[in-house]
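Operator note (shift B, R.M.): manual run for PIHD3 protein requested after the automated queue skipped it. Running by hand, logging everything below so the morning shift can see what happened. Input copied straight from the record, untouched. If output looks odd, do not overwrite the archive copy; leave it for review.
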Amino acid sequence: FQVKSENRKTIWNTEEVPEGSEFDDTWDPREQPEYQILFKQCVGTEDVFFGMSRKDPSTACCEDMVIKIKLPETKYSDITLDIQEKVLDLRTPQKKLLLHLPYRVDSKNGKARFLSEEETLEVTLRVSRMFDFINF
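Run finished. Output pasted below as returned.
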């Protein structure tokens, strides 16, 4: 058993702190909105009928992640949204959502749209994975 001798006075290593923990505020009284995580997949006839690719309906074969967040009585201009590789941080005057995402995403190229009739924010993010034999 060998101890790294970087700095023995540190309590924890920076790799041990989860990404997005700087946003977490346990004293914030705003409630968490209802949300739903869905996955989208691009498939063609060769995938569905012929099984020529190795895609299946699992989330491992999906290209996009869609997060639908219910925000009743909220205006689009009141929404603050910050997306990082593994964290979605949403804030409004009444609601707060800090969501640790199940997969890494491309934080620079996402899309968000507010459906005012449904009072829902829909955030679409491209899942970023290493290329493998399924996702190419």
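Quick read of the result: The chain has a mean pLDDT of 79. DSSP finds one helix and seven strands in the chain.
Leaving this for review. - R.M.
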